[in-house]
Specification:
The chain has 204 residues and is mainly beta. The chain has one domain: Jelly Rolls. A hairpin with a 7-residue loop joins β7 and β8. It has two helices and 15 strands.
């Protein structure tokens, strides 16, 4: 085989591997790709994959950097971008169209992990947190450990003071965004946190 052809095949193989983002490590109920193909244990998912779960569905993903994500029931998620080359900062971006997702993000020096929704953008480097999009498209964000910065995703109205991200920490751990603004950080009730835990299950 010609050296040029071998090099081309190697480059194609390398590009394909670079696009792999995560693996399905647990699932239950109705969990599938957006094209209707059911998910299976061990499936390798690439950047660009869109997932959705039914009324009793749940899927747990493990990313190549060790981060873990759980997509709860009645949810839809797209892996917009993911790159974590050895020895380099991670760059991850997810789009949650609807439903609930929980994440335990592995620390990454100077790396990024963003979750976008129709009404908010959430940014972390390494922490455990959840993001939920309700029927009204509002976004609720809760941090369990570490810190999370949240800001509305909609355009800013002229004449209004510059917006700053809402920082969530262990004590003041939750906020809600409607696209134009996010509420100040507050402590979520035990009942609210219990509902999250019931829908998400374990990240382990």
């Amino acid at each position: 085989m010609r050296p040029a052809l071998l090099l081309g095949l190697a480059l194609l193989s390398s590009a394909a591997m670079a696009q792999q983002a995560c693996e399905v490590v647990a699932l239950s109920g109705d969990a599938q790709r957006l094209d209707g193909k059911p998910l299976a244990l061990g499936d390798k998912l690439d950047v660009g994959t869109q997932l959705r779960t039914g009324a009793s569905g749940r899927v747990r993903l493990r990313f190549t950097d060790g981060s873990v994500l759980v997509l709860a029931d009645r949810s839809q998620l797209r892996i917009e971008a993911f790159s974590a080359p050895p020895g380099q900062p991670r760059a991850a971006e997810l789009l949650l169209e609807m439903g609930l997702v929980g994440q335990r993000v592995a620390p990454s020096a100077n790396g990024s992990w963003k979750v976008r929704t129709p009404t908010a953008v959430t940014a972390v480097r390494g922490t455990e947190f959840s993001v939920e999009v309700g029927d009204d498209r509002a976004t609720a964000v809760h941090v369990k450990t570490g810190e999370v910065d949240v800001e509305p995703s909609g355009p800013q109205t002229r004449g209004i003071k510059p917006r700053y991200p809402v920082r969530l920490q262990k004590a003041l751990n939750g906020t809600q965004c409607d696209g134009s603004q996010c509420t100040p950080a507050v402590a979520w009730t035990a009942e609210k946190l219990q509902r999250l835990d019931q829908r998400l299950g374990s990240l382990d």
